[in-house]
Write a structure and sequence with these properties.
3-stranded antiparallel sheet; 5 strands; 184 residues; two-stranded antiparallel sheet; alpha+beta
């Protein structure tokens, strides 16, 4: 029997994550702000992204409804979650932590994802790709914090800082990496 393409591709790269029955976090009837009776089913043990156009309710769903609901389930102090009808699968989660994209230091390179090591696994996965191995790229090649991986023009910041004498400083997107922060 053949595996589905996604599972076969993951297994080839050393990532073992098989979806099993009842390994979902389900939020039903989210109705806070611009969410109108929204049902969401999120697979566990996966990197899951919530995307959508501006104003579609991404932040409301995660920050105002789901995160406080999980905190409340685990008996942690929180504000009242936004309106929802039901939550299942919370018992499958040991702990919940909100990690946003704001810098935690004086540089944009010190964001929570790099601080907690979330990028380490992603960089290691990229380094196992056939093209990366052929070019002898290590995990550091995929880092905007290291000399080999980061854009040499902006030092991995993604922008250039222009000091203005009598006006506020200006930040321009790096023309070499176009804000991607990595070298070619």
């Amino acid at each position: 029997m053949s595996q589905p393409a996604a599972q076969g591709a993951s297994a080839a790269h050393g990532v073992v994550a098989v979806a099993t029955a009842n390994r979902w976090l389900e939020l039903r009837g989210a109705a806070e702000h611009n969410l109108k009776n929204l049902d969401v089913r999120i697979p566990l043990k996966r990197l899951v992204c919530v995307t959508g156009v501006s104003g579609s309710g991404k932040s409301t769903l995660i920050e105002d409804v789901l995160y406080p609901a999980l905190l409340k389930y685990h008996g942690k102090p929180t504000e009242a979650p936004g309106e929802f009808a039901g939550l299942t699968g919370a018992e499958l989660i040991d702990d919940v932590v909100m990690v946003d994209q704001n810098p935690i230091g004086r540089t944009t390179r010190s964001n929570p994802a790099s601080y907690v090591g979330a990028f380490d696994a992603i960089r290691a996965l990229f380094a196992t790709e056939p093209a990366a191995q052929e070019r002898k790229y290590g995990a550091g090649t995929f880092s905007f914090n290291s000399g080999n991986g980061r854009c040499p023009a902006c030092n991995g910041n993604g922008f250039e800082h222009v000091e203005m004498q009598f006006l506020s400083d200006v930040y321009l997107r790096c023309p070499d990496c176009n804000g991607r922060r990595l070298s070619r």
